[in-house]
Amino acid sequence: MNVYRVRFAPWIPFVDPILGEDNKFHLGGVAKDVYEGMKVFMDFNYDAVPQSDNIYGAKVNGTWNGMIGSMVENETDISGPYFIDEDRSLAVEFSDPVAFSQLTIVSGLISSNRDPFLILAVFSMPVK
What we know:
By secondary structure, the chain is an alpha/beta fold. The protein has helices at 30-41, 66-72, 86-91; strands at 3-8, 18-19, 25-26, 45-50, 59-60, 63-64, 78-83, 103-107. Pfam families: Lig_chan-Glu_bd (PF10613).
């Protein structure tokens, strides 16, 4: 089983870092729920590491910093969430955004449409 490298920064409620007993921040919030669900249904495991400077990613003097930089440098497989802008969409592969915003995660694992306005509807399933 592959262990995917996940990088995160706070973005409540999607990413809600939890201070553990080891005095380090650990992944919490909706993102953790999604990744834990993926473990149940897929050949998926992950190691989540907080972005130490909480920088999401900007291009500075032609070089990406923050979580986008860690993706570009192949230090991270999945990171986010982010708002998609043109520069970011040219640097990394985004997953499809959710219906209520352009908020999305970045993944080097899947190909995606680079159209930043592609919207997926959120749906619910009845559970018996």
